[in-house]
Amino acid sequence: MLMSRVISHSHVPRTPASPFPYSSCLSSSETIISSFLTRNQVTYTRSLLMPSILTARAAGRNLNNADGMHDSPEIFKLDGSGLLKASSKREMSFWSNKYVLGLTTTAGIGGLLFGYDTGVISGALLYIRDDFKVVNDNSVLQETIVSMAVVGAIIGAAAGGWINDVHGRKKATLLADVVFIIGSLVMCIAPDPNILILGRLFVGLGVGIASVTAPVYIAEAAPSEIRGALVATNVLMITGGQFLSYLVNLAFTEVPGTWRWMLGVAAIPAVVQFIFMMFLPESPRWLYMKDKKSKAVAVLKKIYDSNRLQEEIDQLEAASKQVSQFGKAVSYLDVFKSKEIRLAFFTGAGLQAFQQFTGINTVMYYCPTIVQMAGFSSKKLALLLSLIVAAMNAVGTVIGILLIDRCGRRLLALTSLSGVFASLLVLSYAFYLQSSNLHALTGSATLGSGAGWFAVAGLVLYIAFFSPGMGPVPWTVNSEIYPEAYRGVCGGMSAMVNWVSNFIVAQMFLSVVELVGTSMTFLIISGVSVLAFGFVLFFLPETKGLTFEQVERMWKERAWGNDLASSSGQQNIIGNET
Ligand code: BGC
């Protein structure tokens, strides 16, 4: 059953009801619970409490009543207003822990490579065509050069997930760097288009592995109250990387060897990341699950003070017991056999697909083309507008970082999708106007025509709404909704869905425009954004501020209902449906 079940209210203290379903746009941990109670009734309250029960069980305490809600006051307490409070304060701020920030920035170089590589090729291709006549004459060859990196990313994301679970996040990052460096250098010295394509494949593999590893590595080191902001920082590196690639494209236009430099310089951040990663530890959660507990605790000590440290260790201990009780080799098939993992994967992968099918990369990859379609024939203006759009995308991501742990993932995604829907309608209408103008004028559209500016406004509006929400939310959610043992495999498959969708959209956009016209194409994408809104509304749970154990518990409840889930404190993490 996909929707949560609502349980009896009898044991659960009610919070003051909020008339506004999204009143959770406040920062304290209590309001998380308050908003859950008002929006989703009391379903998640038990989820929030269950880690305390597991912790108590792990400590061998005896819980008297059926669900244990009254018996863990040392973990969750009621304050005067009837709100539930965690025992230790979860109030770390984004800037307060330099170690976590350093780790995030280093891991985020993976995001930078992702963004740079997806952005740089459009500019580089212009010069590759000048150097290789065969490429210039053959559009299939051009498409292969562009899309081979995405093919590599699809494979890299799928394999990278498994590598993450079996060999750890650190080794996965180092491997991504090595593959990326090889790919960049191969492209830089490529004597012919075939070698260039091989280099693109390598770079894509590296980007694919990084796209799954960086969010998971960051999320696992992050205190739960700032996890969203830290993972979204990796998305800022993606959008920053795209912006940087446009600047580099401009900077190298006059330099001999243009495209070789454009593609080759990407090796530098990968080398930097490789060196820094050597000094960073493996993810503490992965270490703990692999029974390297003292190493894990040594890392956790750098992140938490002593009170909080004990709580984190208790939770990890309870979670690792579950994993080892039922632990077996990580397998892709388990994702589909286990109901709770299947539900989580459905949500995570659905979000990734909708991120792409709501058209972000039609804007990022085809922005200059769209601007020209809107009637602005100057190449320079088209490129300048693309640069502005890329910059706005990065600035919008910063707003997402500021909001994601305050407003939560759901509100951010829903608001983002509403704005995306409206701006796609504006775009569609602008192109409708422009095509009627064209008919009326029986010639080319005039530069700066009303419809053209209308389209530019639509683009700007689109980015302003997409970037804080549907940009960071899918990556963040996918880094936090899977159980420990499957975080890599599920995150990897889900990232693969993102890359496959990216590939489909990028390949199809121009053909669909040819077939049904630009206005209709944007109308279709706006229809997809309505579906995406419904998907988020019905399937995406709020994970703001929750620990991994609380999130895991919540999926169990969704899958098995409350009673089964509570008896499955000891239930199979791979809860085969018996
Ligand atoms: C997406 C990329 C996209 C980028 C745009 C990311 O979150 O996954 O496909 O190009 O945002 O900023």
What does this 3D model show about the protein?
Mean pLDDT is 81; it is low at 1-86, 442-447 and 569-578. α2 (43-58) packs across α13, α3 (98-131) runs antiparallel to α5 and α6 packs antiparallel against α7 (193-221). The chain has 23 helices and 2 strands. It has 578 residues and is mainly alpha-helical. The chain is 73% helix and 1% strand. The longest helix is centred in the N-terminal third of the chain and has 34 residues, at 98-131. Beta-D-glucopyranose binds next to α8, α16 and α21. Residues 103-544 form the Major facilitator superfamily (MFS) profile domain. Keywords: Membrane, Sugar transport, Transmembrane, Transmembrane helix, Transport.
> Largest sheet at a glance?
2 strands, antiparallel
**How much is the radius of gyration in Å?**
24 Å
Low-confidence stretches: 1-86, 442-447, 569-578
* Count of DSSP-assigned helices: 23
Class by alpha and beta content: mainly alpha
Query: Strand sequence of the main sheet, in spatial order?
Result: 1-2
Arithmetic mean pLDDT: 81
* Secondary structure: helix percent: over 70%
- The coarse overall form would be globular
CATH homologous superfamily classification of the largest domain: MFS general substrate transporter like domains
The helix-strand sequence is HHEEHHHHHHHHHHHHHHHHHHHHH
Count of extended strands: 2
Percentage beta strand: under 5%
InterPro entries: MFS_dom, MFS_sugar_transport-like, MFS_trans_sf, Myo-inositol_Transporter, Sugar/inositol_transpt, Sugar_transporter_CS
Transmembrane segments: 99-128, 140-162, 197-218, 230-252, 258-280, 381-404, 410-433, 445-465, 485-510, 522-540
GO molecular function, one term: transmembrane transporter activity
Domain Major facilitator superfamily (MFS) profile: 103-544
